[in-house]
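tool=predict chain=A
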Amino acid sequence: MNTITSFLIQVALTLAIAFLIVGYLRPSLRTVLVDLCRTEERARFWTAFSNVLLIGMPVILALNYKPEAGSAEELFFEVAGKLSGNLGGFLFALIVTGLIVSFFALVAPRSPKMETK
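tool=predict ok
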């Protein structure tokens, strides 16, 4: 396996994992954002913003990979290590997104609930 192939493999794996996780999180995130934003258009914007952040951060890290290993075994572990860093970037972006949504959930004005007896 040459260096270009290993580069492309780790970028493809990073993209695939990021898309799978974002696809899993999207319905829940969208529900929360519709509740916080109160309009579908605003929620759609913030969902798209979150998706770009959650996919863009690991891909930027993935594009910074320059393979140096000589043997296939070394290359495999080098790709695995870089993939680990890329997923760490994904988790960082997820935490930032969670903090932003949590902040707005705390400060978003709420209509008073009607008391029932």
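Residues 3-10+27-106 form one domain. The longest helix spans residues 72-107.
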